[in-house]
Design goal:
Layout lengths: L1 E3 L5 H10 L8 E5 L11 E4 L5 H7 L5 E4 L7 H15 L2 E6 L12 H13 L3 E6 L7 H10 L1 E4 L11 H13 L7 E4 L7 H12 L4 E4 L2 H10 L4 H15 L9 H6 L6 H9 L1
Parallel strand pairs: 1-2, 1-4, 2-3, 4-5, 5-6, 6-8, 7-9
Helix pairs in contact: 1-6, 3-4, 7-11, 8-9
Length: 278
């Protein structure tokens, strides 16, 4: 039995839909903080609140594999540890969605992922770690407002981003969950093509026929732009830090591992732009 945590979220839903094409629905359990939000997935649903360990232990009963989709709370490393402990207790293999180069990057966003990876490895649980590069969907708002602003803003310089669609990562995750041979592996997952924010601006301009250029800003100025657009200040600082690390090559690698897992090319950022604006 495969238990997918965070099942009512964007990634969790896509993983379950893909898994249903690979294994019987009766072999899948959707674990969610609010079970009602996962009731439409066509599989068994169990409550799993990251802040209530007793619900996690119950949700994982009978599991052979557990997908730990990383949380978004400030104390997510502690939340993750509770799922690791429960997976070990039931004797399940753990699959964890981590961050690119989590063990070496200086990006602040990866700190909790690094801590979780270390906890997983120290726990003795059988594991597979999926280090997902950036998602195309992370740029949805930037893409949709760029034609009106005439610009894509950032602090990434000419750093390259090997992003893929959320559906691509979900398919890769489902493949790992449904197949054997992935125990003990750490996979760096990314799109097939790396692009710059200037490339993104050019794609938007081509699709819309409007003038759109990339405006590279100092880190603090970019954080200010994000805060002015309504992004909470601490998260704006985190996103600006991400861009600085992109400029240093953090997200540039295209190892091809995701394509190997899903058996097809990943969706390009240009295709994503066209799906939003075309």
């Amino acid at each position: 039995m495969i238990v997918v945590t965070g099942a009512s979220g964007h990634l969790g839903r896509l993983v379950i839909e893909d898994l249903k094409q690979r294994v019987a629905a009766s072999e899948i359990v959707a674990a969610a903080r609010t079970p009602e939000k996962a009731a439409d997935l066509g599989v068994e649903v169990r409550e799993a609140d990251y802040d209530r360990p007793e619900t996690i232990k119950s949700a994982l009963q009978g599991a052979t594999k557990v997908l730990l989709i990383s949380g978004i709370d400030p104390h997510r490393a502690q939340q993750h540890a509770a799922i690791v402990d429960a997976a070990k207790e039931v004797g399940a293999t753990l699959v964890y969605t981590s961050a690119p180069k989590a063990d070496t990057t200086e990006a602040g966003l990866a700190a909790d992922h690094r801590a979780t990876e270390e906890y997983i490895k120290a726990s003795g649980v059988t594991y597979t770690i999926l280090r997902n590069n950036w998602y195309h969907e992370n740029y949805e708002q930037s893409i949709t407002v760029a034609p009106q602003l005439g610009a894509v803003y950032g602090a990434a310089g000419d750093g390259r981003i090997a992003s893929a669609s959320r559906a691509d990562y979900a398919a890769g995750t489902a493949a790992v969950l449904a197949e054997t041979g992935h125990d003990g592996k750490v996979y760096e997952l990314a799109g097939d093509t790396a692009w710059t924010l200037a490339d993104l601006a050019a794609e938007i301009a081509e699709v819309t026929g409007k003038e759109v250029a990339y405006q590279n800003l100092p880190k603090d100025d970019y954080a200010g732009v994000l805060a002015g657009a309504g992004v909470p200040a601490p998260f704006a600082e985190t996103l600006a830090d991400v861009d600085v690390n992109i400029s240093r090559g953090w997200l540039a690698d295209t190892p091809g591992t995701l394509t190997d897992l899903i058996g097809r090319p990943t969706r390009t950022v240009g295709e994503y732009v066209r799906s939003l604006l075309g």
